[in-house]
């Protein structure tokens, strides 16, 4: 299979996938190295493909206009990361990303795409395995989350749950 054919097949696989696919799994599927897949993804993106990198792999974000996207400002310690994320998914929302405002680099963001407790547990497992520091550690725990909620009621539930936990920044 030529490189262009592989990239076409890779894009089609991501379009039909039911969730994120890791670079390692894609490399096995196409019998190439992980680095080749990373390069292919970069070339596909440069060609205009909307491919997001999540903690669990590559995904083509849903283009559906269903639901409501809201942005919340939160603050907590690294020890409360899992609890915060579970409060969001338990109330029916998908955590799209996390954003911090760095004094030197400006806005830094990380794609999350977490929709369930399983997604959260896998994310936390990976953070622990890699001994990664959450982005919010750069800003004293203050960060933004963009959420996709099925409706305004779900957004209100998340806000209330985060407020009760002391995580929601109101001012």
UniProtKB/TrEMBL annotation:
The keyword Zinc does not apply. Keywords: Metal-binding, Nickel. The keyword Metal-binding applies. Residues 73-168 form the 3H domain. Residues 6-58 form the Helix-turn-helix type domain. GO terms for molecular function: metal ion binding. SUPFAM superfamilies: Putative transcriptional regulator TM1602, C-terminal domain, Winged helix' DNA-binding domain. InterPro entries: 3H_dom_sf, 3H_domain, HTH_11, NadR, WH-like_DNA-bd_sf, WH_DNA-bd_sf. Ni(2+) binds at residues 76, 84, 143, 145. This is Transcriptional repressor for DNA biosynthesis. It comes from Intestinimonas butyriciproducens.
